[in-house]
């Protein structure tokens, strides 16, 4: 229950910012404020945790992929604000590693960020990260412009000495970005990846990650979207590394064994699932005026709307039918750069009104 009330509190803050929409006439006034945020959380990867079951009684979304209950189609409404259409169809990603990350961990995360570029693999029949991303092209803004086709890693920093300690809150995350040496990029997404020994307010109790936006002083009134995602390996693998860790015992579904992670690191492979969720949510709802569904208590965005679904025939506790690597036995659903394999959450498709991957 504590979780539920905290979530309400957080999201009601979010709501007041959504009302004072910086996209409208308040633009000048809002942009004078150094930094305000509209937080939206990447929830646990599990289909339905008990607290969320209570929280979601008033909305219909959870049951949509539950074949037993015929439901009206899931709709994420468009709230007439901007989407991330990028520049020349490209969004630049700026990444801050915060704390300890091993070389293999950084290698896996970098390969993921490089996986959004078009490649020769795309013409082959197997699924790729960039083909997965193409579902976001069905989201269009008021000018009928779609979300940018390409995400491109444009900068990386490593705060290996934990400059703000090991216990962070939302202000710390924002300060890390605003205080970084990155220049402001109106077509950028800024990401903070926190190491397994860093706690972030809300991490593992409410969220696997969160996205926000802020107004840098020198940004000429532009807003920049940013997000953090934590490494859950030690703090809540059963929530934020599922299905690569056994589900948390608070989960009501079947007690299924953990799947083998494709990059050999349940924490990092779990982070990549949350990053996929975050990136899709940021691009389609950067300022909480894009596509989401919700009664105000818990907006559901592109990937959150398909929670727990990674393949066909998913149901609560079962991620769906996935590909299996015959050598390692790992489970995945997309190929990425450098022959890597990843698991991407299914995304709601506005053209079919269904989740797909
Ligand atoms: C725009 O993107 C295309 C292909 O993605 C590239 O060939 C072209 O050079 C880019 N143009 C600019 C101005 O960056
Ligand atoms: C975040 O933590 C810092 C100190 O670590 C504190 O000064 C600040 O008030 C906190 N902000 C919020 C929003 O809790």
UniProtKB/TrEMBL annotation:
Name the record gives this protein: Uncharacterized protein
Origin species: Diphasiastrum complanatum
């Amino acid at each position: 229950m504590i979780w539920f009330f905290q979530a309400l509190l957080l999201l009601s803050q979010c709501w007041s910012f959504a009302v004072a929409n910086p996209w409208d006439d308040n633009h000048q006034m809002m942009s004078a404020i150094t930094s305000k945020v509209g937080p939206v959380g990447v929830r646990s990867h599990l289909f339905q945790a008990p607290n969320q079951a209570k929280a979601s009684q008033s909305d219909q979304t959870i049951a949509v992929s539950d074949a037993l209950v015929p439901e009206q189609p899931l709709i994420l409404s468009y709230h007439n604000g901007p989407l991330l259409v990028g520049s020349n169809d490209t969004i630049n990603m700026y990444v801050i590693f915060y704390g300890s990350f091993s070389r293999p961990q950084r290698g896996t995360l970098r390969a993921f960020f490089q996986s959004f570029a078009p490649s020769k693999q795309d013409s082959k029949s197997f699924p790729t990260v960039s083909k997965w991303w193409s579902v976001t092209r069905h989201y269009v803004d008021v000018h009928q412009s779609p979300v940018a086709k390409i995400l491109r890693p444009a900068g990386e920093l490593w705060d290996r000495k934990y400059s703000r300690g090991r216990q962070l809150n939302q202000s710390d995350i924002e300060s890390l970005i605003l205080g970084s040496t990155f220049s402001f990029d109106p077509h950028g997404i800024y990401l903070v990846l926190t190491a397994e020994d860093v706690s972030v307010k809300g991490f593992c109790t409410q969220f696997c990650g969160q996205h926000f936006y802020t107004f840098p002083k020198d940004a000429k009134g532009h807003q920049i979207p940013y997000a953090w995602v934590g490494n859950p390996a030690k703090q809540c693998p059963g929530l934020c590394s599922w299905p690569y860790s056994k589900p948390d015992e608070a989960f009501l579904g079947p007690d299924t064994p953990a799947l083998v992670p494709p990059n050999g690191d349940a924490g990092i492979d779990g982070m990549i699932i949350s990053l996929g969720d975050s990136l899709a949510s940021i691009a389609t709802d950067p300022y909480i005026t894009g596509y989401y569904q919700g009664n105000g208590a818990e907006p559901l965005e592109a990937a959150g709307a398909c929670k727990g679904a990674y393949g066909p025939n998913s149901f609560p506790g079962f991620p769906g039918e996935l590909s299996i690597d015959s050598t390692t036995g790992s489970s995945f659903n997309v190929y990425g750069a450098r022959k890597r394999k990843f698991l991407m959450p299914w995304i709601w498709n506005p053209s079919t009104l269904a989740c797909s991957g």
